[in-house]
Model the fold of this input.
Amino acid sequence: MRVHLKCYQALLLAMSVSILSACEGGGGNPVSDTPQPDSSEPPAAPVQPPVSPPPPAGVGDGAFATPQSTSRFLTQATFGPAPLEVSTLTGTSASQWFVNELSKTASLHVPQMEAYRSLFADPREDFPVIEPDVASYIFWKNTIDGNDQLRQRMAFALSQIFVISNQSDNILSDYAEGMAYYQDVLIQNALGNYRDLIEDVTYAPAMGFYLTYIGNQKADATIGRRPDENYAREILQLFSVGLVQLQPNGEPVLGADGQPVEIYDNSDITGLAKVFTGLDLVGIDRSVTPTLLNALADTAELERNFLMPMAVFESRHSPLAKDFLNCSIAAGTSTAQSIDLALDCIIAHPNVGPFVSRQLIQRFTTSDPSPNYVQRVAAAFDAGQFSLPDGTVVGDGRKGDLSATVAAILFDAEARGASSLTNTQFGKVREPLLRFTHWARAFDADATRPELGSTLYDLSGPTRLSQHPYRPRSVFNFYRPGYVAPGTTSGSLGMTVPELQIVNASTVTGYLNFLSFFTLDQKVNRPITELEGDVRSRLGKLSFTQSELLQSFTPDYTDEIAIANNASALVEHLDDLLAYDTLSAETKADIVAVLNAAPLQDPSSTSELKERVGLAIFMVMTSPDYLVQR
Amino acid sequence: MKANRREFFKGIGASAMATAAFAGRPGFFSAHAADTSGYKALVCVFLFGGLDNYDLLVPYDTTSYGEFQAARPSLLSQYGSSRARSSLLALSPLTSSALGGRQVALPPEMPQLKSLFDAGNAAFVANVGPLIEPITLTQFQNGSARVPARLFSHNDQQTTWKASAPEGAQFGWAGLFADAVLAAGANGSSPQFTAITVDEAGPFLTGRQTAPYRISEAGAPEVRVFEELAMSSTPKSAEFSSMLRSNLGASQFVGTHVLEQDMALKVSNGLSTNDTFSNARASISPLSTAFGEGGLSAQLKAVAETISIRSQLSATRQVFFVGLGGFDTHSAQAFSLPPLLTELDSAIGAFQAAMAELGVVNDVTLFTASDFGRTLSVNGDGTDHGWGGNHIVVGGSVMGGDIYGSVAPPVLGNSLDTGAGRVIPSLAVEQYASQLGSWFGLTSSELATALPNLRNFDQNTPRFI
Done:
């Protein structure tokens, strides 16, 4: 076991040369047992470019220095910069913005889910028609219009680690309470502590259902029953430590055989599986209705119990000793205490910081972070504190503080420095959902009634975006953090690029079609009765007016229409607004040439100008320059 | 041809299996480059989540069935009558060596597969799973033989099935098979249609030269913006449309950022391949074979349609990937698994009928793959991750009506049981793959390139195709 880190060594991995050591956060001794890579191994990955030292106080203060730098920061930290927000914040302190975000009121799912439910005169009868989709309606509201942008962005990132999904027809699509309560667990803990989060997740009925430990029982040899292993396996592999031993910088420790060292085997899984026995939905009586599905069908009120943590049924909990990860829980320990001890044991593992930090960096700033970047963020995670550029310390000092972690991600020199803008490997392919929220925020598209946007009902198919809120295909998310895309330049460089896993011939066109529908405001070209029919078929008795329908996700292009006579000026404006001035001159010239190839017949026609604006936005947002967030 | 081989098998009996096995060994073919004559396609049906091996080949003789009941009493009772012995579809394989004196049956959800088996067009390969080298239980327990990394982990074992290494692997064996046939001149100027997927294939179809082409159930989606702009009041010139098409295809992209270059290439290749594919699909004659409801049926229908336009695509060798999820039956297995088996049965049945309709029964081989088998023991109402699993091979070239490999006994603590009935595979995935690759036309050295651990096993590969 490695000791708690306060100070770290940066290794130039492939060359096995220590180029830098630096201390931060109260000093401490350099750790001496950082495993050294086997220097006889040929370099497996390209040499990392020299890394900047950890940021001295003051670096990052310039985050809001210019409209472009403000826009870039907000692109990384929110669901997309809105023009007014950029102009208001430019020239102010990014540190202060961050501190303000921490105290903003959380936009929660449960109250909004209840509000949807109450729109129906007879919720029991009529609410089910929208139950599979209500979580995504709330997602659009929170991400496009929510004031707590950082919290929501972090919660969305966490929803891609602690994955549950309402993709198939299951209890999570049939009972909206489960998803609503679960997303609130993520939202409320998003800037809190990872240990608290993983406990709330563990007790959440939706996770209990998704990873099948709701109702899980102790072994019974007489009927050949043993505890379900599903959650035990995934809480380790996906939610906390991964599979192999990690260095503090997130790189695997290699054994004598040159291979990564696995940190547990199946006996750890069977040991930990005993911990997650005895939890079940509040109020359920398995002696009457053995299956959850039947219990819910028999007793309608039970669905409301998805709005609270699972209850402990002590007699169903394993009384045996539970051994895993070099931890041991004594025979006879209660359910709650076993879970408590198990989660403490898991969170104490030194892998957690680098394992979680690397994935969170991928969700905010860059797909293939340098080991040094990972190590600095993991250090903030482990220390539970981070000093903002203005000197404000965020985090309560407890390992797993997520406000400190996300601050370390966003204010890191690699994320903020101008050099990362020119580094040809820094950045990430924008997630398809974030492209859409970005468009909606940039052009103030109306998301007050997202349920009226029939184009958004299910984006998970390959002819759509292969990404729908809270609807990954499995617990392995839309894409894997370790995905290296075959047959690409990034792949030949060994770069992990998760989002490329959902880019293929089908989704490429799916995205074009999705985007042009919105940017060119295509709903006005469809008969209103047809639009109404699409919505009606998914909303049942929910009432709406035609004008609400037409208003839904309609962009405000006023500023753009005002300059659209000049294609070049329009494209420059969009480059600033959408890509903080990162479109290449060639890309802009190409877009301008296409626009000019469709000359305006009547330069005063708003509809012509609006179409030109929509087309220009479409081309900007489909350009490789835009698709990669730098 | 099929009947002849069947006769041949009946004639020589089980004792000649060893000879047959040698015939299928890499090295049997002495050619220096892959055989690319005629048309051949491999179709992988991936059963995501880990198919319960004990619920595909169900123990059937009264002793085995009794043992099975004793191992899974709570689960079998939840199935109700569908796993009653009298409901099962007993199999009568041509040879009995795989069964160790036992009998097995298909579940009642799989009547079409039973018919295909009886007609000699389907076979089962028992207890297949990832292995690096042969290993006994003792060796497993004392760590004296190598085992695949990250056993029992979904994503890693899926990737190991597809690419002989855990997650992060870059090249899959079907992609490397495709490389070999392309190098030998298959598919002329249309290499982009060599490897086609209708699901998330991971690295399976990726080779050093081969990249998978992703289609949807309905073929390739059309870009709609041109039609949308045509609805506007201002008419657009042909020159404008051509410039826009070129812009969307990122064909003039000159940026130096690695990810931007990757995106530009994916967009550009994707759109142009879609155009070619859509043009070829325009000539499809509708199949008279009816495919059922469900995602797998739709995916296999798309494969059948693609095979029907093989000449328009200039394809002589193709590998396809389709998938069906939901097999990770930790919970409510008796409720959720039977409908999946029904869907699998129906989709395979329709696909095989479509191959007959297209006259390519002997040219197309479908096979299953899955993360792993499952535990024999029960966790209440489901089963957990195992290792070896049972698999299905379908096609006119398959030496059907038989079971290959070795069916694991339904007894906890048997000689392959690493715990809870997670059995050590009797046959490595790479052995299974080598038979498919050999049929596809690969030489022994090409097989060795695609299947790095094959040399550790090649004495023991039973020939099933």
Remarks:
- The two ends of chain B are 12 Å apart (CA to CA).
- Chain B touches chain A through 92 residues (CB under 8 Å).
